[in-house]
Amino acid sequence: MKHEQIDDVKLFMNGKFVESERNAYFENINPFTNEVINYVAKGNELDIENAVQAAEEAFTKGPWGKMKLKERMAYIEKIATLIDENQEEIAVLESLDSGLPIKQTRNMISRAAENFRFYSRMVQTKMHGDAYQVDCEFLNYTVYQPLGAVGLITPWNAPFMLTTWKVAPALASGNTVILKPAELSPLSANKLAEIIQQAKLPNGVFNVVHGYGEEAGASLVQNEKVKAISFTGETVTGKTIIKNAADSLKKTSMELGGKSPLIIFDDADFERALDAAVWGIFSFNGERCTANSRVFVHKNIKQRFINALKRRVDHIVLGDPMDMKTEIGPLINREHYKKVMEYIHLAKEEGCEVYQGNIPKHLTKGNFVPPTLLLHAKNEMQASQEEIFGPVMSVITFSEEEEVIQMANDTQYGLAGYVWTNDLKRGHRVAQAVDSGMIG
Amino acid sequence: MCDLRIPFGGMKASGIGREGGQHAILEFYTEPKAIHVSLGNHPIPQFGKPNHKGGK
Q1: Number of CB pairs < 8 Å for A and B?
Q2: CA distance B37 to B34
Q3: Annotation says A255 is catalytic
Q4: ipTM for the assembly
Q5: Quick one: pLDDT band at residue B56, thresholds 50, 70, 90?
Q6: Do β-strands A131-134 and A138-146 pair in parallel, antiparallel, or remain unpaired?
Q7: Which of A144, A12, A179, A141 is nearest to A69 (CA)?
Q8: Whole-structure pTM over 0.90, yes or no?
Q9: Do B33 and A416 touch (CB under 8 A)?
Protein backbone atom coordinates (compact mmCIF):
# COMPACT_ATOMS: atom_id res chain seq x y z
CA MET A 1 0.00 0.00 0.00
CA LYS A 2 1.35 3.35 -1.00
CA HIS A 3 1.13 6.76 0.55
CA GLU A 4 -0.40 8.48 -2.41
CA GLN A 5 -2.50 11.54 -3.05
CA ILE A 6 -6.21 10.94 -3.06
CA ASP A 7 -9.30 12.85 -4.17
CA ASP A 8 -10.18 16.05 -2.39
CA VAL A 9 -12.84 15.91 0.29
CA LYS A 10 -16.12 17.79 0.05
CA LEU A 11 -18.92 18.52 2.48
CA PHE A 12 -21.95 16.24 2.43
CA MET A 13 -25.40 17.71 2.90
CA ASN A 14 -28.92 16.98 1.84
CA GLY A 15 -27.69 13.85 0.09
CA LYS A 16 -25.06 15.57 -2.05
CA PHE A 17 -21.33 16.26 -1.93
CA VAL A 18 -20.78 20.01 -2.19
CA GLU A 19 -18.05 22.64 -1.98
CA SER A 20 -18.06 24.98 0.99
CA GLU A 21 -20.01 28.25 0.58
CA ARG A 22 -16.82 30.31 0.56
CA ASN A 23 -15.04 27.73 -1.57
CA ALA A 24 -12.32 27.45 1.06
CA TYR A 25 -10.05 24.45 1.59
CA PHE A 26 -7.49 23.28 4.10
CA GLU A 27 -4.58 20.89 3.66
CA ASN A 28 -4.78 17.34 4.95
CA ILE A 29 -1.31 16.16 5.94
CA ASN A 30 -0.06 12.58 6.05
CA PRO A 31 1.52 11.94 9.50
CA PHE A 32 4.00 9.44 8.02
CA THR A 33 5.38 11.63 5.22
CA ASN A 34 4.25 15.09 6.34
CA GLU A 35 3.17 15.66 2.76
CA VAL A 36 -0.26 16.79 1.59
CA ILE A 37 -2.68 13.91 1.06
CA ASN A 38 -5.44 16.11 -0.34
CA TYR A 39 -7.48 19.24 0.27
CA VAL A 40 -10.58 19.33 2.42
CA ALA A 41 -13.54 21.68 1.97
CA LYS A 42 -13.47 24.07 4.92
CA GLY A 43 -16.93 24.69 6.28
CA ASN A 44 -17.95 27.72 8.29
CA GLU A 45 -21.13 29.16 9.79
CA LEU A 46 -22.88 29.30 6.39
CA ASP A 47 -22.26 25.64 5.69
CA ILE A 48 -23.36 24.71 9.19
CA GLU A 49 -26.58 26.68 8.65
CA ASN A 50 -27.22 24.80 5.39
CA ALA A 51 -26.52 21.44 6.96
CA VAL A 52 -28.67 22.17 10.00
CA GLN A 53 -31.51 23.29 7.78
CA ALA A 54 -31.25 20.07 5.77
CA ALA A 55 -31.15 17.97 8.94
CA GLU A 56 -34.07 19.81 10.52
CA GLU A 57 -36.23 19.51 7.44
CA ALA A 58 -35.38 15.85 7.15
CA PHE A 59 -36.50 15.43 10.74
CA THR A 60 -39.69 17.48 10.70
CA LYS A 61 -40.86 16.89 7.13
CA GLY A 62 -39.00 13.81 5.94
CA PRO A 63 -39.89 10.17 6.40
CA TRP A 64 -36.99 9.26 8.74
CA GLY A 65 -38.68 9.72 12.10
CA LYS A 66 -42.06 8.44 10.93
CA MET A 67 -41.17 5.33 8.97
CA LYS A 68 -41.73 1.90 10.46
CA LEU A 69 -39.00 0.74 12.76
CA LYS A 70 -38.21 -2.25 10.60
CA GLU A 71 -37.75 -0.01 7.62
CA ARG A 72 -35.39 2.36 9.47
CA MET A 73 -33.41 -0.55 10.88
CA ALA A 74 -33.04 -1.99 7.38
CA TYR A 75 -31.17 1.22 6.47
CA ILE A 76 -29.02 0.94 9.62
CA GLU A 77 -28.14 -2.67 8.86
CA LYS A 78 -27.44 -1.82 5.23
CA ILE A 79 -24.84 0.70 6.46
CA ALA A 80 -23.20 -2.09 8.50
CA THR A 81 -23.08 -4.38 5.48
CA LEU A 82 -21.53 -1.67 3.31
CA ILE A 83 -18.91 -0.91 5.97
CA ASP A 84 -17.96 -4.60 5.98
CA GLU A 85 -17.75 -4.63 2.19
CA ASN A 86 -15.49 -1.56 2.25
CA GLN A 87 -13.51 -2.57 5.33
CA GLU A 88 -10.11 -2.70 3.69
CA GLU A 89 -10.51 0.61 1.88
CA ILE A 90 -11.67 2.36 5.06
CA ALA A 91 -8.82 0.85 7.11
CA VAL A 92 -6.28 2.10 4.57
CA LEU A 93 -7.82 5.59 4.53
CA GLU A 94 -7.82 5.66 8.30
CA SER A 95 -4.16 4.63 8.58
CA LEU A 96 -3.15 7.08 5.87
CA ASP A 97 -4.98 9.90 7.58
CA SER A 98 -4.25 9.22 11.26
CA GLY A 99 -0.96 7.26 11.30
CA LEU A 100 -2.65 4.43 13.21
CA PRO A 101 -1.17 1.01 12.35
CA ILE A 102 -3.21 -0.87 9.75
CA LYS A 103 -3.44 -3.96 11.93
CA GLN A 104 -5.31 -1.87 14.50
CA THR A 105 -7.47 0.11 12.04
CA ARG A 106 -8.72 -3.14 10.46
CA ASN A 107 -10.08 -4.21 13.84
CA MET A 108 -11.56 -0.80 14.44
CA ILE A 109 -13.47 -0.86 11.15
CA SER A 110 -15.07 -4.22 11.81
CA ARG A 111 -16.13 -2.92 15.21
CA ALA A 112 -17.57 0.13 13.48
CA ALA A 113 -19.87 -2.10 11.42
CA GLU A 114 -20.93 -3.81 14.63
CA ASN A 115 -21.87 -0.42 16.11
CA PHE A 116 -24.69 -0.18 13.55
CA ARG A 117 -25.88 -3.76 14.03
CA PHE A 118 -25.76 -3.35 17.80
CA TYR A 119 -27.88 -0.19 17.77
CA SER A 120 -30.36 -1.76 15.42
CA ARG A 121 -30.86 -4.47 18.03
CA MET A 122 -30.84 -1.96 20.92
CA VAL A 123 -33.50 0.29 19.41
CA GLN A 124 -35.70 -2.67 18.60
CA THR A 125 -35.50 -4.11 22.09
CA LYS A 126 -34.77 -1.27 24.53
CA MET A 127 -36.35 1.88 23.16
CA HIS A 128 -39.64 1.64 24.97
CA GLY A 129 -41.26 3.43 27.84
CA ASP A 130 -42.96 2.37 31.04
CA ALA A 131 -46.58 2.32 32.17
CA TYR A 132 -47.62 3.77 35.55
CA GLN A 133 -51.05 2.82 36.71
CA VAL A 134 -52.79 4.95 39.37
CA ASP A 135 -55.55 2.76 40.76
CA CYS A 136 -58.51 2.87 38.39
CA GLU A 137 -58.13 6.58 37.77
CA PHE A 138 -55.11 7.00 35.54
CA LEU A 139 -52.90 5.10 33.29
CA ASN A 140 -49.77 7.13 32.69
CA TYR A 141 -47.05 6.03 30.35
CA THR A 142 -43.84 7.20 28.75
CA VAL A 143 -42.59 7.10 25.22
CA TYR A 144 -39.05 7.87 24.08
CA GLN A 145 -38.80 10.25 21.18
CA PRO A 146 -35.79 11.33 19.12
CA LEU A 147 -34.52 14.86 19.75
CA GLY A 148 -34.31 16.16 16.19
CA ALA A 149 -31.18 17.45 14.46
CA VAL A 150 -28.18 16.55 16.61
CA GLY A 151 -24.55 17.64 16.27
CA LEU A 152 -21.71 15.16 16.63
CA ILE A 153 -18.16 16.43 17.06
CA THR A 154 -15.63 13.64 16.77
CA PRO A 155 -11.91 13.25 17.51
CA TRP A 156 -8.94 12.23 15.38
CA ASN A 157 -7.59 9.41 17.51
CA ALA A 158 -9.95 6.63 16.42
CA PRO A 159 -12.06 8.50 13.89
CA PHE A 160 -14.21 5.87 12.23
CA MET A 161 -14.86 3.78 15.31
CA LEU A 162 -15.81 6.74 17.51
CA THR A 163 -17.82 8.44 14.76
CA THR A 164 -19.92 5.35 14.11
CA TRP A 165 -20.32 4.85 17.86
CA LYS A 166 -22.20 8.18 17.91
CA VAL A 167 -23.82 8.13 14.46
CA ALA A 168 -25.34 4.66 14.89
CA PRO A 169 -27.42 5.35 18.05
CA ALA A 170 -28.29 8.87 16.86
CA LEU A 171 -29.72 7.65 13.54
CA ALA A 172 -31.18 4.38 14.79
CA SER A 173 -33.24 6.20 17.42
CA GLY A 174 -34.66 8.49 14.71
CA ASN A 175 -32.59 11.67 14.89
CA THR A 176 -30.95 13.42 11.98
CA VAL A 177 -27.25 14.21 12.18
CA ILE A 178 -24.73 16.93 11.43
CA LEU A 179 -21.26 15.48 11.84
CA LYS A 180 -18.23 17.73 12.33
CA PRO A 181 -15.21 15.42 12.06
CA ALA A 182 -11.81 16.34 13.49
CA GLU A 183 -9.98 18.47 10.94
CA LEU A 184 -6.87 16.30 11.33
CA SER A 185 -8.61 13.11 10.15
CA PRO A 186 -11.46 13.86 7.75
CA LEU A 187 -11.15 10.97 5.29
CA SER A 188 -13.11 8.12 6.83
CA ALA A 189 -16.02 10.45 7.70
CA ASN A 190 -16.47 11.12 4.02
CA LYS A 191 -16.34 7.42 3.30
CA LEU A 192 -19.19 7.04 5.77
CA ALA A 193 -21.09 9.74 3.86
CA GLU A 194 -20.52 7.78 0.62
CA ILE A 195 -21.79 4.62 2.26
CA ILE A 196 -24.86 6.38 3.62
CA GLN A 197 -25.53 7.81 0.17
CA GLN A 198 -25.17 4.34 -1.29
CA ALA A 199 -27.53 2.94 1.35
CA LYS A 200 -30.05 5.53 0.05
CA LEU A 201 -30.96 7.12 3.36
CA PRO A 202 -33.42 9.97 2.81
CA ASN A 203 -31.71 13.28 1.98
CA GLY A 204 -30.67 15.42 4.93
CA VAL A 205 -30.72 12.60 7.47
CA PHE A 206 -26.93 12.55 7.61
CA ASN A 207 -24.71 15.55 6.87
CA VAL A 208 -20.98 16.19 7.20
CA VAL A 209 -19.39 19.62 7.59
CA HIS A 210 -15.60 19.61 7.73
CA GLY A 211 -13.71 22.51 9.21
CA TYR A 212 -12.05 23.87 12.30
CA GLY A 213 -13.50 23.68 15.76
CA GLU A 214 -13.49 27.45 16.24
CA GLU A 215 -15.53 28.00 13.05
CA ALA A 216 -17.61 25.00 12.02
CA GLY A 217 -17.67 23.39 15.47
CA ALA A 218 -18.58 26.59 17.31
CA SER A 219 -21.35 27.43 14.80
CA LEU A 220 -22.83 23.98 15.25
CA VAL A 221 -22.82 24.36 19.04
CA GLN A 222 -24.45 27.80 18.84
CA ASN A 223 -27.12 26.91 16.30
CA GLU A 224 -30.52 27.09 17.97
CA LYS A 225 -32.05 24.35 15.85
CA VAL A 226 -29.47 21.79 16.95
CA LYS A 227 -30.95 19.91 19.88
CA ALA A 228 -27.86 18.20 21.29
CA ILE A 229 -24.10 18.02 20.98
CA SER A 230 -22.13 14.87 21.57
CA PHE A 231 -18.44 15.64 21.83
CA THR A 232 -15.35 13.52 22.28
CA GLY A 233 -12.09 15.39 22.68
CA GLU A 234 -10.05 17.56 25.00
CA THR A 235 -11.36 18.70 28.37
CA VAL A 236 -10.70 22.39 27.64
CA THR A 237 -12.78 22.22 24.44
CA GLY A 238 -15.51 20.35 26.28
CA LYS A 239 -15.83 23.15 28.82
CA THR A 240 -16.11 25.74 26.04
CA ILE A 241 -18.80 23.69 24.32
CA ILE A 242 -20.89 23.39 27.49
CA LYS A 243 -20.68 27.16 28.02
CA ASN A 244 -21.66 27.93 24.44
CA ALA A 245 -24.43 25.33 24.44
CA ALA A 246 -26.04 27.01 27.45
CA ASP A 247 -27.51 29.85 25.38
CA SER A 248 -29.74 27.50 23.45
CA LEU A 249 -30.15 25.07 26.39
CA LYS A 250 -28.73 22.15 24.47
CA LYS A 251 -28.24 18.72 25.81
CA THR A 252 -24.55 17.83 25.78
CA SER A 253 -22.57 14.66 26.23
CA MET A 254 -18.88 14.99 26.99
CA GLU A 255 -16.28 12.28 26.59
CA LEU A 256 -13.08 14.05 27.56
CA GLY A 257 -9.49 13.43 28.59
CA GLY A 258 -7.96 10.96 30.96
CA LYS A 259 -4.88 10.03 32.94
CA SER A 260 -5.99 6.55 33.83
CA PRO A 261 -4.23 4.50 36.50
CA LEU A 262 -3.20 0.88 36.12
CA ILE A 263 -2.42 -0.66 39.49
CA ILE A 264 -0.33 -3.82 39.79
CA PHE A 265 -0.19 -5.58 43.16
CA ASP A 266 2.62 -8.02 43.93
CA ASP A 267 0.29 -11.03 43.69
CA ALA A 268 -0.81 -10.18 40.15
CA ASP A 269 -0.32 -12.47 37.17
CA PHE A 270 2.92 -10.77 36.16
CA GLU A 271 3.05 -11.52 32.44
CA ARG A 272 -0.60 -10.70 31.81
CA ALA A 273 -0.33 -7.46 33.74
CA LEU A 274 2.72 -6.62 31.67
CA ASP A 275 0.89 -7.34 28.39
CA ALA A 276 -2.01 -5.18 29.50
CA ALA A 277 0.12 -2.27 30.70
CA VAL A 278 2.10 -2.23 27.44
CA TRP A 279 -0.91 -2.57 25.15
CA GLY A 280 -2.94 -0.03 27.11
CA ILE A 281 -0.47 2.79 26.58
CA PHE A 282 1.29 1.91 23.32
CA SER A 283 -1.69 0.84 21.19
CA PHE A 284 -3.32 3.52 18.98
CA ASN A 285 0.12 5.22 19.12
CA GLY A 286 -0.66 6.15 22.72
CA GLU A 287 -3.36 8.48 21.42
CA ARG A 288 -6.25 6.98 23.35
CA CYS A 289 -8.39 8.57 26.01
CA THR A 290 -8.53 5.41 28.14
CA ALA A 291 -4.73 4.85 28.00
CA ASN A 292 -3.09 3.72 31.25
CA SER A 293 -0.63 6.58 31.26
CA ARG A 294 0.02 6.14 34.99
CA VAL A 295 1.23 2.69 36.04
CA PHE A 296 1.47 2.04 39.78
CA VAL A 297 3.70 -0.95 40.60
CA HIS A 298 4.00 -2.54 44.01
CA LYS A 299 7.50 -2.08 45.45
CA ASN A 300 8.08 -5.85 45.76
CA ILE A 301 7.88 -6.37 42.00
CA LYS A 302 9.02 -2.93 40.89
CA GLN A 303 12.49 -3.81 39.63
CA ARG A 304 11.40 -6.97 37.87
CA PHE A 305 8.50 -5.12 36.24
CA ILE A 306 10.64 -2.21 35.08
CA ASN A 307 13.19 -4.62 33.58
CA ALA A 308 10.40 -6.41 31.73
CA LEU A 309 8.93 -3.11 30.52
CA LYS A 310 12.34 -2.06 29.18
CA ARG A 311 12.68 -5.31 27.23
CA ARG A 312 9.23 -4.78 25.68
CA VAL A 313 10.00 -1.18 24.79
CA ASP A 314 13.28 -2.28 23.16
CA HIS A 315 11.36 -4.58 20.82
CA ILE A 316 8.23 -2.61 19.97
CA VAL A 317 8.13 -2.10 16.20
CA LEU A 318 7.83 1.47 14.97
CA GLY A 319 7.13 1.84 11.29
CA ASP A 320 4.94 2.63 8.32
CA PRO A 321 1.30 2.57 9.43
CA MET A 322 0.52 0.56 6.28
CA ASP A 323 2.85 -2.25 7.37
CA MET A 324 1.13 -5.14 9.17
CA LYS A 325 4.20 -5.55 11.42
CA THR A 326 3.99 -1.98 12.72
CA GLU A 327 2.99 -1.63 16.36
CA ILE A 328 3.46 2.13 16.74
CA GLY A 329 2.98 4.59 13.89
CA PRO A 330 3.60 8.34 13.68
CA LEU A 331 1.62 10.79 15.83
CA ILE A 332 -1.21 12.71 14.21
CA ASN A 333 0.69 15.91 13.32
CA ARG A 334 3.85 17.89 13.93
CA GLU A 335 2.28 20.10 16.57
CA HIS A 336 1.10 17.17 18.64
CA TYR A 337 4.51 15.50 18.23
CA LYS A 338 6.15 18.62 19.66
CA LYS A 339 3.74 18.70 22.58
CA VAL A 340 4.52 15.07 23.47
CA MET A 341 8.27 15.66 23.14
CA GLU A 342 8.00 18.68 25.43
CA TYR A 343 6.33 16.55 28.08
CA ILE A 344 9.16 14.00 27.87
CA HIS A 345 11.65 16.81 28.27
CA LEU A 346 9.67 18.17 31.20
CA ALA A 347 9.62 14.74 32.87
CA LYS A 348 13.42 14.69 32.73
CA GLU A 349 13.55 18.10 34.36
CA GLU A 350 11.15 16.89 37.02
CA GLY A 351 13.57 14.09 37.87
CA CYS A 352 12.39 11.06 35.89
CA GLU A 353 14.74 8.62 34.25
CA VAL A 354 13.53 8.52 30.65
CA TYR A 355 13.86 5.15 28.94
CA GLN A 356 12.90 4.96 25.25
CA GLY A 357 12.81 2.51 22.38
CA ASN A 358 14.59 3.25 19.14
CA ILE A 359 13.25 4.88 16.01
CA PRO A 360 14.59 3.00 12.95
CA LYS A 361 16.92 5.26 10.96
CA HIS A 362 14.91 5.18 7.74
CA LEU A 363 11.87 6.76 9.44
CA THR A 364 12.98 10.34 8.96
CA LYS A 365 9.81 12.17 7.92
CA GLY A 366 7.05 10.95 10.19
CA ASN A 367 6.01 12.27 13.60
CA PHE A 368 7.58 9.36 15.46
CA VAL A 369 7.87 9.31 19.23
CA PRO A 370 9.41 6.05 20.49
CA PRO A 371 7.68 4.13 23.30
CA THR A 372 8.73 5.99 26.41
CA LEU A 373 8.93 5.05 30.09
CA LEU A 374 9.12 7.76 32.72
CA LEU A 375 10.84 5.82 35.51
CA HIS A 376 10.94 6.87 39.17
CA ALA A 377 8.01 9.16 38.41
CA LYS A 378 5.99 10.74 41.19
CA ASN A 379 2.25 11.12 40.93
CA GLU A 380 2.37 14.84 41.64
CA MET A 381 4.73 15.61 38.73
CA GLN A 382 3.21 17.55 35.87
CA ALA A 383 4.08 14.71 33.47
CA SER A 384 1.98 12.38 35.66
CA GLN A 385 -0.90 14.82 36.05
CA GLU A 386 -1.51 16.19 32.55
CA GLU A 387 -2.78 14.22 29.59
CA ILE A 388 0.13 13.69 27.17
CA PHE A 389 -1.83 11.61 24.63
CA GLY A 390 1.23 9.81 23.32
CA PRO A 391 3.22 6.60 23.91
CA VAL A 392 4.46 7.76 27.31
CA MET A 393 3.99 5.85 30.56
CA SER A 394 4.69 7.19 34.05
CA VAL A 395 5.89 4.34 36.27
CA ILE A 396 5.17 5.04 39.94
CA THR A 397 5.97 2.81 42.93
CA PHE A 398 3.65 2.15 45.88
CA SER A 399 3.68 -0.02 48.98
CA GLU A 400 0.19 0.14 50.54
CA GLU A 401 -3.31 -0.28 49.12
CA GLU A 402 -4.57 2.90 50.79
CA GLU A 403 -1.65 4.84 49.42
CA VAL A 404 -2.17 3.68 45.83
CA ILE A 405 -5.89 4.43 45.92
CA GLN A 406 -5.12 7.92 47.10
CA MET A 407 -2.56 8.45 44.34
CA ALA A 408 -4.83 6.94 41.69
CA ASN A 409 -7.53 9.44 42.67
CA ASP A 410 -5.18 12.38 42.99
CA THR A 411 -5.82 13.64 39.46
CA GLN A 412 -8.35 15.93 37.81
CA TYR A 413 -9.45 13.07 35.54
CA GLY A 414 -11.57 9.98 36.10
CA LEU A 415 -12.12 8.11 32.86
CA ALA A 416 -10.82 4.55 33.19
CA GLY A 417 -8.85 2.47 35.66
CA TYR A 418 -7.24 -0.96 35.75
CA VAL A 419 -6.46 -3.20 38.72
CA TRP A 420 -4.21 -6.28 38.62
CA THR A 421 -4.40 -8.60 41.59
CA ASN A 422 -5.42 -12.19 42.22
CA ASP A 423 -6.98 -11.27 45.55
CA LEU A 424 -10.67 -11.16 44.72
CA LYS A 425 -11.67 -9.03 47.68
CA ARG A 426 -8.92 -6.52 47.13
CA GLY A 427 -9.73 -6.32 43.42
CA HIS A 428 -13.34 -5.33 44.07
CA ARG A 429 -12.40 -3.07 46.97
CA VAL A 430 -9.96 -1.07 44.86
CA ALA A 431 -12.33 -1.01 41.87
CA GLN A 432 -14.99 0.57 44.11
CA ALA A 433 -12.55 3.10 45.54
CA VAL A 434 -11.00 4.44 42.35
CA ASP A 435 -12.93 7.41 40.93
CA SER A 436 -13.40 6.49 37.31
CA GLY A 437 -16.27 5.88 34.94
CA MET A 438 -14.92 2.49 33.94
CA ILE A 439 -12.59 0.13 35.76
CA GLY A 440 -11.38 -3.37 35.01
CA MET B 1 -15.41 -0.36 24.15
CA CYS B 2 -15.12 -4.09 23.78
CA ASP B 3 -18.52 -4.51 25.41
CA LEU B 4 -20.93 -2.21 23.59
CA ARG B 5 -23.53 -2.58 26.34
CA ILE B 6 -21.70 -0.70 29.09
CA PRO B 7 -22.20 2.97 29.94
CA PHE B 8 -19.08 4.62 28.51
CA GLY B 9 -17.82 7.87 29.97
CA GLY B 10 -15.86 9.51 32.70
CA MET B 11 -16.08 11.15 36.11
CA LYS B 12 -14.55 14.49 37.14
CA ALA B 13 -12.73 16.29 34.30
CA SER B 14 -13.11 13.24 32.05
CA GLY B 15 -16.65 14.12 31.13
CA ILE B 16 -20.35 14.39 31.86
CA GLY B 17 -22.91 11.87 30.76
CA ARG B 18 -22.69 8.35 29.44
CA GLU B 19 -23.13 6.96 25.98
CA GLY B 20 -22.91 3.37 24.87
CA GLY B 21 -25.47 0.61 25.22
CA GLN B 22 -29.00 1.58 26.07
CA HIS B 23 -27.63 4.68 27.81
CA ALA B 24 -26.94 6.34 24.45
CA ILE B 25 -30.50 5.78 23.36
CA LEU B 26 -32.51 6.32 26.53
CA GLU B 27 -30.38 8.97 28.22
CA PHE B 28 -28.96 10.99 25.38
CA TYR B 29 -30.38 10.65 21.87
CA THR B 30 -34.03 10.56 22.95
CA GLU B 31 -36.27 12.32 25.42
CA PRO B 32 -38.95 10.65 27.49
CA LYS B 33 -42.41 12.09 27.23
CA ALA B 34 -44.91 11.32 29.97
CA ILE B 35 -48.50 10.90 28.79
CA HIS B 36 -51.32 11.01 31.34
CA VAL B 37 -54.52 9.20 30.56
CA SER B 38 -57.54 9.68 32.75
CA LEU B 39 -59.57 6.49 32.99
CA GLY B 40 -62.52 7.93 34.92
CA ASN B 41 -63.92 11.21 36.15
CA HIS B 42 -61.28 12.28 38.64
CA PRO B 43 -62.04 15.43 40.68
CA ILE B 44 -60.95 18.75 39.16
CA PRO B 45 -61.12 21.90 41.33
CA GLN B 46 -63.88 24.14 40.00
CA PHE B 47 -62.52 27.66 40.29
CA GLY B 48 -65.07 30.39 39.67
CA LYS B 49 -67.99 28.06 39.92
CA PRO B 50 -70.50 29.20 42.62
CA ASN B 51 -70.58 26.96 45.72
CA HIS B 52 -67.47 25.03 44.83
CA LYS B 53 -65.32 23.86 47.70
CA GLY B 54 -62.32 26.04 47.03
CA GLY B 55 -64.35 29.31 46.99
CA LYS B 56 -65.58 31.73 49.68
Answers
A1: 151
A2: 10
A3: yes
A4: 0.94
A5: very low
A6: antiparallel
A7: A144
A8: yes
A9: no
